[in-house]
Amino acid sequence: MNQTEAKQKVEELREQLNRYNYEYHVQDNPSVSDYEYDMKMRELVDLEEQFPDLVTADSPSQRVGGPPLDAFQKVQHNVPMLSLGNAFNEEELRDFDRRARGGVDEDIQYVCELKIDGLAVSLTYEDGLFVRGATRGDGTTGEDITKNLRTIRNIPLRLKEAESLEVRGEAYMPKRSFIKLNEEKEANGEEPFANPRNAAAGSLRQLDPKIAAKRNLDIFLYGVGEWQTSELGSHSERLEKMEQLGLKTNPEWQKCDDIDAVIDYVNGWVERRMDLDYEIDGIVIKVDRLDQQEALGFTAKSPRWAIAYKFPAEEAITKLKDIELSVGRTGAVTPTALLDPVKVAGTTVQRASLHNEDLIREKDIRIGDTVVIKKAGDIIPEVVRVLTEERTGEEKEYYMPEHCPECGSELVRLEEEVALRCINPNCPAQLREGLIHFVSRNAMNIDGLGEKVIAQLFKENLVATIADLYKLAREELLKLERMGEKSVDNLLNAIHASKENSLERLLFGLGIRYVGSKAAKTLAEAFGTMDNLQKASYEDLLAINEIGDKMADSIYRYFEEEKVEALISELKELGLNMEYKGRRKSEQASDSPFTGKTIVLTGKMESFTRSEAKQNVEDLGGKITGSVSKNTDLLIAGEDAGSKLDKARELGVEIWDEEKFKQALNA
Ligand code: IVH
């Protein structure tokens, strides 16, 4: 491909990817699968690698996160990023209104907006191009986090018009993503984030943008720092214009004619905020007309034309009766506080995770304490603090045991982990939790096998391993409590049907450490079959985009275990599908020269980009890996092939040139 052809292709890919992004993130209505999206993105990245001149700052490829930085650069805010004064009740809102009306001697219309609980950021666009993103810092000097912000799909890299402006908004982590991230962190023995705001801030303050890219952050823009060419006269018009430019504003904002309407809006959100997928900690009320804003001006810290109404914290006071331990499927032992039931943010709370012993020490939590409870992310109950003044002297300090509460093995604290772990692979708690994970929705998705049924099956010694699930007999199930004929038949059908699941579900269900459902899909797509994956070397795994060294190491070591090999052959014998059923054409091509082969591509080819060649091989049932090893069946070498070619020669691996590759594809 020459420069002109490449340019045309790159532009076409960018347009497609931008459209897919828009459909996915703004319209919530994707027209292509994730796979197709990933393939197009890969093609674009490949082309930009081959033709670096074609890389532009607004290319969708720039969202995937570049190399890590050594430190953040400082950024001066031309217009300071101020904070807001607070109002905590209706009276204080009315005071604000009186002051504002007095200041302009006119009626005032307000705009009410949700106060998103995230990290304040500033985005600078020059002639429509996103050039810089920064944190608020101390209000005058922030940090340049452009690379991290680029990974947020809702931040347009190019505006719909060539405007130059600086806008401000709140980057945040949706509640759902926060919960998932913390679950992963806990399973991996890492310290969880206290709330979505910390999670968002922690993700954006990482020097390696790849981390932010994985964190599923989002943004709402709510104001303007500088916009010299704008002739708009009100904040509401600015919000509308921002939306037209492609800048995402929060849809819940509302114009209010007077302070009564403001108070109605505020009250309307006290309960409703629980239904949002992001945390808000209040409502921001802004004078709409910009001339009135100007007339009111600023105090040293905050504008006189806006105020933040803060919701009362959803906290409650209760007694901590006891601390219970649970062992997760990875062996992490987690303490949970058992509480006297208390209502917080709409539901009754009886338990709160204490995460680990460090946290118990840090907050000096004792059994019998009176504690303050709140919900992190408005969902997960947590102990905020102990009311030490309520102590009677009867409270008992708590220390984690030295042995697993379920199997009695000694607990260990692995390096760099905060969690204590039971490392006995036969610990019944781990096996039981592992089974619960195996049948769960994103794994094998076996309906009718909830936690309770698994616990029952386990208790009755009907199952100990995953394979046992597929050997359950009808008569045995009928003997269980609350299991009628119909539910037993449904259950057996569901178990049977799960045998046909595509490989990624099984892979995720196995519970290999660090392998989440997304990584399982990547592995299934890349290797196609369980056999291929079992044979993969550490390097083969590492060669896959999105698989880092920690995960590659964990997968490699998992498949090395004899017990795992035995389990997988047993599952095979029981009839479980071991192949990826997604968009791979390997089944149609069972007799292709690439079927089942491990192939390495190297050098430049005239007729294919790297990803086209890879796609062709994979479509015909071959597996592409990144480096030549004794497991390599074939090396396809284009022009200027280097060390991989030497290595293949050395190992006696079959070598083809591009011509032979083309013939094989046409065959
Ligand atoms: S307006 C001059 N609007 O709340 C200050 N702020 O103290 C203009 N925030 O950290 C701020 N949602 O990042 C505004 N809809 C909203 C907001 C919002 C969240 C944050 C902001 C700042 C704090 C204000």
Describe the model.
The model is unreliable at 584-589 (pLDDT under 50). The protein has 25 helices and 24 strands. A hairpin with a 2-residue loop joins strand 4 (119-126) and strand 5 (129-135). The chain is globular. The strands form six sheets. Strands 12, 13, 14, 16, 17, 19 and 20 form a seven-stranded antiparallel β-sheet that branches. A five-stranded mixed β-sheet has the order 2-11-10-3-9. Strands 5-4-7-8 form a four-stranded antiparallel β-sheet. It is of the alpha+beta class and 667 residues long. 38% of the residues lie in helices and 20% in strands. It folds into five domains: 3-63, Helix Hairpins; 85-310, D-amino Acid Aminotransferase, Chain A, domain 1 (2-Layer Sandwich), CATH 3.30.470; 315-412, Nucleic acid-binding proteins (OB fold (Dihydrolipoamide Acetyltransferase, E2P), Beta Barrel); 428-573, 5' to 3' exonuclease, C-terminal subdomain (DNA polymerase, domain 1); 588-666, Rossmann fold, CATH 3.40.50.10190. Helix 1 (3-26) runs antiparallel to helix 2, helix 2 runs antiparallel to helix 23 and helix 17 (503-509) packs across helix 18 (517-527). Bound molecules: 2-(butylsulfanyl)adenosine (IVH). Residues 82-84, 113, 115-116, 120, 170, 222-223, 284, 303, 306, 308 line the site of 2-(butylsulfanyl)adenosine (IVH).
